[in-house]
Each structure stands twice: as structure tokens, then as C-alpha cells.
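Standup notes, protein team

Yesterday: finished cleaning the Marinicrinis lubricantis set.
Today: D-3-phosphoglycerate dehydrogenase structure.
Blockers: none.

Input for D-3-phosphoglycerate dehydrogenase:
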Amino acid sequence: MFKVLISDPISDQGIQLLHDASDVQVDKQTGLSEDELCAIIGEYDALLVRSQTKVTRRVMEAGTKLKAVGRAGVGVDNIDLEAATERGIVVINAPDGNTISTCEHTFAMLMSLARNIPQAYKKTVGGEWDRKSFLGVELRNKVLGIVGMGRIGSEVAQRAKAFGMEVIGYDPFMTEERAEKLGVKAGSVDDIVTQADFITVHTPLTNETRHMIGKEQFAKMKKGARIINCARGGIVDENALMDAINAGVVAGAAFDVFEEEPPTSEHPFLNHPKVIVTPHLGASTVEAQENVAIDVSEQLLHILRNEPFKNAVNMPAVPGDVLKKLQPYFVVSEKMGSFLAQITEGALQEIQINFSGELTDVDTSTLVRYILKGVLSYHLGSDVNLVNANHLAKSRDVHIVRQKSSATKGFTNLITLTLKTNKEERSIAGTLLNGYGARIVAIDKYPVDIEPSGTLILVSHNDKPGMIGRLGTVLGNNDVNIATMQVGRKIIGGAAIMALNVDKHVPKEVLDELSALPEMKTVKEVIL
Ligand SMILES: NC(=O)c1ccc[n+]([C@@H]2O[C@H](COP(=O)([O-])OP(=O)(O)OC[C@H]3O[C@@H](n4cnc5c(N)ncnc54)[C@H](O)[C@@H]3O)[C@@H](O)[C@H]2O)c1
Ligand SMILES: O=C(O)CC[C@@H](O)C(=O)O
């Protein structure tokens, strides 16, 4: 008999499947502290949670029989995936079940914002018949900017079109063809902030998306724009938004999610007449809660019964002998993918992966997963893992070309990656040097020798005297210390690159100052 613990309020209809299973005993205990959960989790084969239960490393360690953790929802921010992977615990989620509810909540917020419904309701029930203060705006012929055109963003676009809105969508994975299929105009964040009357964000929270709608974007924003966030707190900079509202640039905002949840009673959104809020209710519908509970219950049953399952968000099992050969390449593979994603511009179309030398004789599909994880995490954040990396690439029409060749350019092993986007094609090669660890040995076919770790600056420029000095002066003036530096060129005076390991994160203003130097082409910061 398998024992399943449900530790958050989850739809009873959704978990009926577990109740009906003759080989499963279901226990429900909600509101447990970490200590209380640790004290009982040792008896259970599976744990089913929503977002309240924090499934920490301690909980995983106490769960000595635990085979699976199921999250009835999308975000797995409350589950320590690394600890689960280390202990061989499969973590699954329900990525599709609450898409429509969250999309509809976004629209409810958008319309409430356009017509001041919460503010008008408050006054009316307070006894005031105020028909002057709440002049709204129509949606028809207005521009909606959608940042993040995944599951929810695409559904929002479809509904906006039914309201006669013009939609501009931005997503690094959205090609012109997909935009056309969805009936939206593909634009940049800049296009959205300068042209949109309503802006809604639907990305995960990653290093790249944190504060992606911030001070700089509000400074360029179309006057009177309205902002909606039903994705994750922190994608829109809350302080910068308040300043923009108070300065009269932004006409109003509707937020379901906050940088800190729940927000404190002093949070400026809570009593501002132009801001409307809900307590993370995007997925709170009968249907969504039933859907996610059904999806996750089905998969938990498969895992417990040792049957094939889907929606795993952590690592697949790798046979021991293969693991031994591949393990030394895991980190370099992922870092190479991340490196290349960070320096390549445009919508991703193809990833070419070539293994040579001693890597030609082994099944490298796990390394492919690490590479894809590195590439895709840059855009999709912590939602990407070794189990779903292939699927995510495929579902976004990213073509993966795997090759093996004997040409090693003198190295015992070599991994060469090429990313093709709608704007450019860039490549890097990396190796594991016996006794010296991982090295990037070529960038766009320029030979280099770079340790893939920490913070790097990658510069493309024209090979002219004085370039190194000018760059060093700008970094020195801004207190950025250079640890190592590599210069690569093919011909004297031609195109060249510089790669620098620096001791700290380089502020955007400093990167802009470097980009403005004569003969510079591109300057990118890479964080590994
Ligand atoms: N409020 C709620 O209750 C609720 C419910 C469900 C989901 N969510 C959240 O909504 C968000 C979207 O969920 P989804 O199911 O549509 O996810 P999804 O993975 O289908 O879509 C996210 C999209 O964001 C894009 N993206 C990543 N980085 C980007 C960037 N820098 N700029 C533009 N686009 C970028 C990705 O390419 C992807 O297409 C997630 O943060 C999710 O956790 C909130
Ligand atoms: O209501 C919930 O369970 C959170 C929903 C949402 O944030 C998710 O990530 O699925």
C-alpha cells in the first residue's frame, strides 16, 4: 500500500482518483509547520502540495521513503528541486491546468482597471453615488503589450483580439511565423513600453525578467499606460511603478502577485487609489484547482506504480556506467549553453551540438539535456530542468541538430555549440583539460582560453591600436577589476574579440560606456 500525504488545501474532486485507487492510502493534514511535516513525512511515499507547504531540504531528508512530490500548479518555487534531485525524488507539476483561469483573471484585472470597478464599488457600498470620479477607457482600438507569449500570454492575446485590441507581443522564443499564427505583432520591450496602452507580463521570474519593467522602461512609457501583473512579483519593479503612477506617467496598475507575499500592511499598493490588488488568485477557480489536482494525481499514481509519467521537473535516471563517463562534463555543458545564450541576440531557431574525441563513443543525450538546460534557462528560468529541456525546446519549435565527429583540433574531447536565431549565428567550443578543468577554447572560431565561471565581459570590436587601453581605463574608472583577459583575431586590423574575467557584476551604465567606445561592435556581460 502506497501512502500519500496531502498537505495543502487541494480540490477533493481532483484527488478522487487517489481515493479510488485500491493500492493507495490518502492522508490530509494541512497547515503543518516544517518540524511537524518532518516528523511525519518518513511514513509517506508521495507528498502532494499547492504553494503553501515549503518542501525544504530538511523535509526531503526526513522523507526517507519519499518517491515523488506533486505540485498542484505551475511554479515549483516552494520545492527544493536540487535536494529532490540529489535524493532521487521526482518532482512533478501541472503546467497546463490553470492557464485559462490565470488568463481570465488577467482579463478581469485589465477590465477592472479600465473601468475603476473596485474603486467605484467601494464608494457605492459606502453610501456615495459618485458618477463623476470614475471615467473609464474603452479597450477597442487600444494597444495591449504582452511580455511573455507562453501558455498564458498567448491565451490573453486571443481574448484581447476579441475585444478589438491591437496586440504587440514580446518573447525571445516567438518567431515571426508564430506571431503571425497568433495574430499579434512581434515587438521588443521598447516597442511595448512606447506604444502600449495596457501592458501585461506573463514570464517566469528569472535574473533576466526581474525588474524588466523598471525605471528605464517607465521613463520611456506612453503616458497613461496601465500595467497588469498576474505572473510573479518582481517582474515589474514595484517602487519604480509607484513613482511612475505618482508622476502621472502610469494611469493605474492591477497586481495579483507581489515581490513579497503576503505584502506588509505598509505596502504602497494597498491604499493607492490607482492600484487594484488581489491575493495571488490567478489559479483560484473551481476548474483550475480540479484540473491541476487531477493532472498531478494521475502522474503520482504512475510514479508510485513504476509506470511512465510526464511533467517531471527534475532529473531523469541515468545508468551508472554512462553517468560515470559523463558526470565530469555536466557543469561545462550547462555553462557553455548558458554562455552562448547570453551572447546571442534574437529568437532562437536552431541549436547545433557537436561532440568529438572521447565523447564520440558514449551516449551523450544527457549532456544534450545539460546544454539545452543552459541555453533555455537563460530565458525560461528555473522552470527548465533536465527532464523537460528537450520537450521545451521542441514545443518552442527550436530545432536541435546533434552531431559527432572525429576532428578534435588537438583536444582529447571537444564540445562545439552553435546557436542560430532570426538575427545571427554564434558558436563556442569547450573542453575538459586533464588536470585544469573546463575551458572555453573558441568563440565564433576565434581561439581563446577562458575558464567558464564567474562574471565575464565579451567584446566584439575592430582590431585597432589602443582598444585594450581604452577598455581598461573605462573599467578601472568604474572600479571593475580585470582578473584575466584574452584577445582573439583572425587577421591584423580585422574583426576581433576580447574576453575578460572580471571580479564583480558590471553595471549596465558601464557596459553602455564600453559600447560607445570607437571601433566597438558589441559588449556583453556573461554570468556563469
Ligand atoms: N497568478 C497566478 O496564480 C499564476 C497562475 C499560473 C501561472 N502563473 C505564472 O504566470 C507566468 C506564466 O506562466 P505560463 O504558464 O504562461 O508559462 P510559460 O512557460 O508557458 O510562458 C512563459 C513565457 O515567458 C517567456 N519569457 C522568458 N523570459 C522572457 C523575457 N525575458 N522576456 C519575454 N518573455 C520571456 C518564455 O519564453 C515563455 O514563453 C509564470 O510566472 C507562472 O508562474 C501565475
Ligand atoms: O494558487 C496556486 O496554487 C498558485 C498558482 C500559480 O502561482 C502557479 O504557479 O501555478
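Follow-up from PR in the comments: Residues 356 and 407 are 6 Å apart (CA to CA).
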